[in-house]
Design goal:
The chain is mainly alpha-helical. The chain has one domain (9-65). Helices cover 56% and strands 6% of the residues. It has helices spanning 9-25, 34-37, 40-55, and strands at residues 60-61, 64-65. Strands 1-2 form a two-stranded antiparallel ribbon. The longest helix is centred in the first third of the chain and has 17 residues, at 9-25. It starts with 8 loop residues before the first helix and ends with a strand.
Length: 66
């Protein structure tokens, strides 16, 4: 049996925790519209930015960025 690279029991658990957090905190916000429910995608974007910055850091030397 092969597992998907991205959908593992660990990632499923993290997703369930994230959805549970959304459900548990929805009453704390006045407007719980579409942006609220799509906020986990911001987590994915933040993860991509962190990985990119770690793998390919920008270098600056004498005023030039490489």
């Amino acid at each position: 049996v092969t597992q998907s690279l991205f959908f593992t029991p660990f990632s499923a658990t993290l997703l369930a925790i994230r959805i549970g957090t959304l459900i548990g905190t929805r009453r704390a916000y006045e407007r719980g519209g579409l942006g609220y429910w799509l906020s986990p995608f911001a987590d994915l974007l933040a993860w991509i930015v962190v990985v990119r910055g770690t793998m390919f850091p920008s270098r600056q030397w004498r005023g030039r960025t490489y």
